[in-house]
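User: two proteins, same treatment. go.

Assistant:
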Amino acid sequence: MAVRGSRGARQRTRTEAERARLYTARTMWHEKQVSRRRRDTWIAVIVGGLIVIGAIVSQTMLGLATGSEPTPAPTQTTVPTEQPTPTPSPTDSTPASPTPEPTQTTGE
């Protein structure tokens, strides 16, 4: 008669196989993440470098296309003289407001 394994041993073997499968899946997933991040970093560095190089080239081409600006020469300018503005003065046609006269009150 063949000896059958105990139920606990079969369960333990199944559990160990499941753990090994999950561990392998996790390590493969982690390795994929690392390689993806490394790839994304390289892409970002290359694209950023191309943008910087493009900006430098465009500024250089703009400078070459516009040429150097001429140096401005001083010119004679006339300074306008300020005319004093007349300040409005009170005229006789404007009625002056009367000053109230002090009055005395009777005290109690």
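Protein 2:
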Amino acid sequence: MLRGSSNWLRPCCGRRVALWQVCLLSAGFNCILVASVLLVVLFLVLELLIDTKLLQFANAFQFASIIHWISLIILSLFFSETVFRIVVLGIWDYIENKVEVFDGAVIVLSLAPMVASTVANGPSSPWDAISLIITLRIWRVKRIIDAYVLQVKVEMELEVQQCEKTRALREEQLERLTQICQEQAQEVDLAAGRDAALQAHHACWGGKKSCFQGLEGRGPGESDDEGGQRNLADPLRPPSGMRAGM
């Protein structure tokens, strides 16, 4: 109920997914974070060696003071980054992401002791070594690898989708051509049937015409055999009806 009713707990914008992918999950952004973590760790180690007098040289304490403030500024930027993540994702999505919660806890546990020791003892204090817990942020190297792997994965998925679209188009064209071939085969079968029917019709009419010619060549009162014999005996003699007319 609280999640749906509190507006300040919601993300700052509707396009938070694109902003998350472009800015927070990009390989370049995570490379900057890892480089900043390594720089802070180096400064904290140098400051710790100077504060414990294991490393001594001219103007060592002034140098330790400078790198202390630089480390404090970088840790403050890390904290601002955490606040930015919460604003972009929304507090509920941020809490549900255990990795982001761990990352934010590391930043807070690194920044708080340094701020406290700076307020209490000034820039030179061995208690600043607690801030070395920021080293745990090195896990973001995995994010860099995942970013490049994700990019390759997305490219491969796009290629697979393109291949699937091409295959679907080819299958559609093949189906269309198969349908056209079937229709043409049916038309050929119909045309062959019509030709066979016409040939049968012509053959039937030819048989009837031969019968009619046989009937015309037979005299009255003659049987079929007599008429046929007479026609064979005298093929040039005209029928009786024609002789009568002559």
